[in-house]
Amino acid sequence: MAEARTREMHPKRVGERLAEARATLKLELEDIAERSRIPLRHLRAIEASEFESLPASTYSVGFAKTFARMVGLDGDEIAAAFRAERGETLAQRQEYTPFEPADPSRVPPSLLAMIALGTAIVLLVVYLMWRGGGASEERQQMAAGTAPEMVASSPAAPALPPSSAPATRPVPPAPTATTDKVVLIANDTVWIKVSERDGPTLYMGELSRGQRYEVPADAKDPRLLTGRPDVVGAQIGSRVIPALGSARRTISGVSLKGPALIERETATAAAAEADRSAAANSDQASANVATPAIP
Q: Are 214 and 204 in contact (CB under 8 A)?
């Protein structure tokens, strides 16, 4: 009965839905296999619904769930539908816990982690020593009546008459948000791909809720591809964009340059406001037509 209800809600099989979502993102099965470490033959079997070619249900369900998340689908819903297609009962579902393969890129070897920690500690000590020495030298120079580097780097200023007020030093303009770095923020588990326009891939993978990805500052024209723009936000300097889209649909080729993201947010807000105004005018017109005139 569970299988019949699932097919009624989703006429297409799980494998077909995963294949269509993957094709929409323009990904090959090899890309999914490389990132998730799921054997390519198992991914092909999942898309073809060849359950006899798959391992035990514990592993197969985990493979399908990971596959779904990487192409922007609901992993839990896909896992439930996959179990139903395999004909599993409720008792079987309670007996096993789905397995999701760990991403090796997120679990560094213990030796590498210890080396990184040691390096960070050494750099921190050196930085603190340098800052302490610099601060001490600055205090000595201020006690002597001079500011560090100011006299040497500034040209001599002409003497002012006693009655003249000192000139106000111009304050340089604060850096705008368009020149700051761009950081993507995952508000839920989401798969993203960042690449140069017509160039190499800078990052491709899954971000968990709360994780961030900083777009390289030297990227020439970085572009974003994701199936869930409604859960991907961005921060440009101190400016925060809550979401890059209002609907759960794939976006591709979105520029990740600060000015472009700000312009995109402005245009989206203007379009939303125009839609609200149009809807309000339509409701008012309907109310005027429905209300009879009183003589």
A: no
Give Cα separations from 295 to 179, 241, 292 (angstroms): 64, 53, 9
Residue where the block lists tokens 């019949």: 4
- Cα 288 from Cα 281, distance rounded (Å): 11
Q: How many Å apart are CA 254 and CA 252, to the nearest integer?
A: 6
- Interacting residues of 29 by C-beta distance below 8 A, sequence separation 6+: 22, 40, 43, 44, 47
Extract the tokens encoding 3.
Answer: 């299988």
DSSP state letter for 292: P
**Tokens coding 226:** 């994701």
For residues 130, 135, 137 and 143, what is the CA-based torsion angle, rounded to 10 degrees? 180
- Continuous segment of H or E residues that includes residue 58: helix 57-70
What was the pLDDT predicted at 108?
53
Give the CA distances from residue 251 to residues 19, 24, 185, in Å, rounded to whole numbers and listed in that order.
Answer: 18, 10, 16
User: Are β-strands 212-214 and 182-186 bridged in parallel, bridged antiparallel, or unpaired?
Assistant: antiparallel
Residue 65, Cβ neighbours under 10 Å: how many? 22
- pLDDT recorded at residue 77: 94
> So where are the chain's domains?
2-100, 177-282
**Which CATH number is associated with domain 2-100?**
1.10.260.40
pLDDT in tens, 172-186: 444 444 467 899 999
